[in-house]
Amino acid sequence: MKILIVDDFATMRRIIKNLLKDLGFHNTQEADDGTTAVPLLNSGNFDFLVTDWNMPGMTGFDLLKHVRADPKLKDLPVLMVTAEAKREQIVAAAQAGVNGYIVKPFTAAVLKDKIEKIFERIEG
Amino acid sequence: MTDEQHESGEFEQKLREATAELTESIAKGDLTEAVNLLQQINDERHRNLYQEVGRLTRALHDAINNFHIDSGLNPQASQQMSEMADASDRLNYVIGMTQEAANTTMDKVEECTPINDNIGREASQLRKEWAKLMSREMKADEFRGLYKRIDLFLEHVETQSNVLSEKFGEITLAQGYQDLTGQVLKRVSNLVHEVESSLVNLVCMAGQVDRITGIRHPQMAQQKQVAKEEGDGTLPEGPIVSPDKRSDVVANQDEVDDLLSSLGF
Fold this sequence. Notes:
The complex is a heterodimer of chains A (124) and B (265). Chain A contains five helices and five strands, in the order βαβαβαβαβα. Chain A has helices at 10-22, 34-44, 60-69, 87-95, 108-123, and strands spanning 2-6, 27-31, 48-51, 78-82, 100-103. In chain A, α2 packs parallel to α3 (60-69). Chain B is an all-alpha fold and 265 residues long. Chain B contains eight helices and no strands. Chain B has helices spanning 3-28, 31-65, 75-82, 87-134, 140-174, 177-213, 218-229, 253-262. The two termini of chain B are 62 Å apart. Chain A: GO terms for molecular function: kinase activity.
């Protein structure tokens, strides 16, 4: 399982990386916004994408839409981990095809729960 | 009555007097005097405006100039602060400090994790052998091995517990950023308040000037309001500072989950 973590704050990337490691996901890579994430996704055979929303350059929402529009990436599960908490945004992310939505600040238990649900749904 | 109100009252008084004189001079056919009076009214209006703008500019300038970190910080920190000229530098200082603290904390936690894992692993191995001993399934030479390992384990726990305590102490110390960044943020917040009240004064004054000069621009504000309301609600906004005061945001993960499940998730 290879996971790409996209967040403009290095600290948050590190937190997510450590939490994923605790959950048994050791193979992670990082990008600091959508623009740097796209080439990695194209070349990296990722199985899972965890992204923030609000980032300079390309936002996580645009990255999500980009992934869903790309024939090679469209089935990639995407988990949004973001401080963006407007109902309209959550609805928009759902409509754009997000697989899970976590609002910051979040706990390890929430991250575990959402990741498990995403894979249950994909495998089930 | 404040100075500003007093001055604007004075201006209105002058305006009234000059208008009476103006009507009089026109009635008398003294156009030179009438034009002179108009000029005087205009000059007075300008003087009033420049004075107010000048005062507010000075207030803004002072507010920004007074924005210095002066006391309460350790010498090293005040040295760093004195090199910073403006609020944006101060906010960057906060970002740097919080990032450093987060990294230190995570470094220490990462150093503690394997120590703790080791203790747990050793304890669980020893407990299996201990169980054997309790159920009298242990041979004599096995017992001699266990005897030594328990001694080593206790010694190990003792030293590692000291290492852990030291790292916990460092984690606690790393939270010291809260004090320093808190002071800096308070000052930035005060500056914002000062600037805001100065701007409110400027707007009030501009309103008085508009009234005096007869300028009307009611459309702009409304248009701006409409534009704001029709804005793209999916544009990123960052953390919601007071979710309890807003109906368009979720307050926690449960509300996100409820919303998503209502959409069939």
